[in-house]
Amino acid sequence: MHPRDQTIFAVSSGRPPSAISIVRVSGPQAGVALTLIAGKMPVPRMATRALLRDRDRQPIDDAMALWFPGPASATGEDVAEFHVHGGRAVLAALFAALSDFDHVRAAEPGEFTRRAFENGKLDLTEAEGLDDLIHADTDRQRRQALRQLKGLLGDQARDWRAQVIEASALKKIKALLGEVQHVLAAQGHGERLREGLVVAIAGPPNVGKSTLMNQLARREVAIVSPHAGTTRDVIEVQLDLDGYPVTVIDTAGIRETADPVEQEGVRRAQARAAEADLVLWLVDAHDGKNLEGNLQQGAAPAWVVRNKIDLDAVESDAAVLGIDAPNPRQPAAVLGQTRRHVDFKISASTGDG
Fold first, then answer.
1. Would you say residue 154 has pLDDT above 80?
2. What's the rounded Cα separation, in Å, for the pair 230 and 223?
C-alpha cells in the first residue's frame, strides 16, 4: 500500500503532560476512526463534545471532536481532531484505539507537513517557513519565519514563473533576471538572522578583551587579570542583542611568544577571527599603536576599539566615528559592508563610550 493511502495520527500540540492535547488524524480512514471512537460524526468544522471509547467500548476521555473533510483541511485529506486532556495515560489509550484500525499508524516526523506540501496546501517556501517558525528563538527570527509562512516568497516565485511564461522578448527576460538576482542576493540577511552572527573580540594581550566580554554578557564569563596571556583558548557566549542571535568570542591575545600553549591560543584566535562576521579589534587607547596588521588579511570587517579611556584624560568622543559609523541597533545591516577603520573609544571596565 502506498504511504498516501495510509491514515496517520500524531499529537499536534505540546509535549505531555499538559492541560489539553490535540491529536490530529489525516487520511482516508480518519472519518471511520472519528465516528467509531467519538460515537458520531460531528458537523464539519464545529467542535463537538463526545465521550471517546476504544474498540471494547471502554471510555477513554470526555473530549472535544472536530471533523475537516478534504480537500478543505490542513493536509488536503480528510482530517479528524481529538482535543483531550493531556495526560500520558489518556494519550496512550487514544493512540492504542487508533492503532486498532486497519491502515492507521503513527505519523513520521514532518509527515503532516509533507502531505500538505504534496496536496498543494503549502509550497516549499511555506513549509520551510513553518519549520523556522517552530524553531524560532528570538522575536526577529519569529517575524521572518512568519513572513515566509504567509507565502510572500512563494507568491513572488509564482509571479516570476508567470512572467517567464509571458516573456517573449530578450529585454524583458534580462530585466526579470536582474530582479531575481537582486532578491536572491538579499537572502543573505535572512540567512544571517537564521544562523546568528559571530562577533570576535581580538587584539594584543592585556588590552581588556575579557573585560569587554564580561561587560557585553553582563556577567563574569572570562577571567580578568593584569597579566598578559591570561586567556589561552577561545571563550564563547550566546547573546540576544535587540532580537539578533549573536555569538561573542573572546580570543587569546595576539602577539609573538615562545610559549607553545600560548602560541596555540594565538593560532586559534586568528582562525576564529578570520571566520567571524565582525571583529572588534581592541587596542590600548594610550598606546598610540594600531596593531591591526596582526589580524589575518581577508578576515571580516574590523572595528578598531580603543580601550581604557578611564585611566587618564583621554575622552570618549562620538565624533571620532565620523560618517562611516554604523548604527549599533542594526548589526545585521552593517555586517559585510562596514569599512575596516571605524574607530571607537571606550572603557570596558566602566562602560563609558
1. no
2. 7
Res. 73: pLDDT tops 90? yes
Q: Cβ distance 5 to 29 under 8 Å?
A: no
Q: CA 201 to CA 209: how far, in whole Å?
A: 6
pLDDT digits (tens, 9 = 90+) for 265-321: 667 767 777 778 888 888 888 765 555 445 555 557 888 888 888 876 544 443 333
Kindly report the backbone phi and psi dihedral angles of residue 238, in degrees, each rounded to the nearest multiple of 5, phi listed first: -95, 130
Question: How far apart (Å, rounded) are the C-alpha atoms in residues 206 and 26?
Answer: 63
pLDDT the model gives residue 252: 59
What pLDDT, in 10s, does the model give residues 181-205? 887 777 666 667 777 888 888 888 7
Q: Quick check: 200 and 272 in contact, CB under 8 A?
A: yes
Q: Which three cell numbers stand for residue 81?
A: 481532531
- Mean pLDDT, the chain, whole residue set: 78
Report d(CA 111, CA 145) in Å as an integer.
Answer: 20
Q: What is the pTM of this model?
A: 0.53
- With helix as H, strand as E and coil as C, how does the chain read? CCHHHCEEEEECCCCCCEEEEEEEEECCCHHHHHHHHHCCCCCCCCCEEEEEECCCCCEEEEEEEEEECCCCCCCCCCEEEEEEEECHHHHHHHHHHHHCCCCEEECCCCHHHHHHHHCCCCCHHHHHHHHHHHCCCCHHHHHHHHHHHCCHHHHHHHHHHHHHHHCCCHHHHHHHHHHHHHHHHHHHHHHHHHHCEEEEEECCCCCCHHHHHHHHHCCCCCCCCCCCCCCCCCEEEEEEECCEEEEEEECCCCCCCCCHHHHHHHHHHHHHHHHCCEEEEEEECCCCCCHHHHCCCCCCCEEEEEECHHHCCCCCCHHHHHHHCCCCCCHHHHCCCCCCCEEEECCCCCCCC
Residue environment code for 94-120, b if the CB has 16+ CB neighbours within 10 A, otherwise e: beebbeebeebeebeeebbbbbbbebe
